[in-house]
UniProtKB/TrEMBL annotation:
Its membrane topology: Multi-pass membrane protein
Record's keyword terms, sorted: Endoplasmic reticulum, Membrane, Nucleus, Transmembrane, Transmembrane helix
UniProt entry tagged with the keyword Transcription: no
Annotated Gene Ontology cellular component terms: endoplasmic reticulum membrane; nuclear inner membrane
Family: Belongs to the TMEM43 family.
Domain of life: Eukaryota
Keyword Transmembrane: yes
Protein name: TMM43 protein
GO BP of this protein: lipid metabolic process; nuclear membrane organization
Membrane-crossing residue ranges in chain numbering: 32-50, 335-357, 400-420
Intracellular or extracellular location(s): Endomembrane system; Endoplasmic reticulum membrane; Nucleus envelope
Amino acid sequence: FQQFSDTGSRKEHVKITSEPKPGFLERLSETSGGMLIGLVTFLLAFYVLFTNEGRALRTAKSLDEGLSLVVPLDNIHSISQQNEGRLVHLVGALSTTKPLFDPSYGLSIRAVKLKRNVEMYQWVEYEDSKEYEENGEIKKETKYSYNTEWKSEVVNSRNFDREIGHKNPSAMAVESFTAVSPNVQVGSFVLSKGLVDKIDDFKQLSLSHLEDPHADVTRGGDYFYHSDNPRRPEVGDLRVSFFYAGLSGDDPHLGSAAMVSLQMFLYFASSVPSSVTSKNFSLSSKVTVIARQRGDQLVPYHTKSGDVLEILYSGDLSVEEVFQKEHESNTMKTWALRAAGWLSMFVGISLMTRIFYTLVDWFPVVRDLVNVGLKAFALCVASSLSLLTISAGWLFYRPLWALLLALLSVVPIVVARSRVPPKKQQ
């Protein structure tokens, strides 16, 4: 059954549900289902740990190969046929052939990417639950609270516990989008799609010197509001902001674009611009690129170890700095996946051994001891098997290290056994 109790405000209410305490067979059935999930999680951990080591070593080897072969380019405005097919390093300003436009707001900017972000003022539901046992029943008390916030995704109010008084529109009248320049260059070299995808350091566009684009749109700060009163918005009102990435730079063939102009047109009923306001606000973006030269294209470089080098960083970096950053990124990713693999194995073992806890659930003292023992068992086994799996991943690359790591994997089990008191000899 459900018991409702209002707090006096329609923006908050409490719901209490109760159900009979599950019997032994029900808990055993739930544990059996958890064992299956645990088995899948346990096996997934082996795959993550094993493939991660091969990936990490292959990436490190590819980076070392790239560092030994890369050719720095002194002049990015001329293409040398001697470097055809080779891995090259160049630094320069980004350039695009034409500005990016948002026709709905009459806005243009010379950059690699222009993002329109649309948010809607809408209801958001929050819940806070707690369970307790009372009169042989399991009761769950859930506190629901509602607040109005700006959200970039439509919140489906039909999933609310109480939609009455908290109903959101089903869609936004204006959509978000990201425009990408079809041709991006550094000097005379055209960047591949993979390199352009790496230009993602978005910064918010300042709209402080612009005017309202339409009669039903009001500018406030760095936002355009579709609202009668932006200071007191209502559910369903919209606000629009813009972000850019990769400002276009100087190019001898395209002309100077070191300073970017932001233009805003005022549209009347005829949609003809009547005035223009512009502001020079930022310098061009300089990037460092390492990729394979193919004509005037910069494309992925395939290493002998089977990896791909296609690197782009913001700023002016030397060859050594770029590859150091790549090694650091590879190390961070490797340790993150190792931690994820170990945690997956620990959870899997815990779920598979949960049945022993369920079997002694009726005896509180024994239950607590068994719970501690199962956690220690899962910790030791997960650590040992993780180290053993990592060593197996190193077997074909670093056999001596693999052997040492395999020996190290025995340590958690030895430590666990040493803490068990020996049986008395009879």
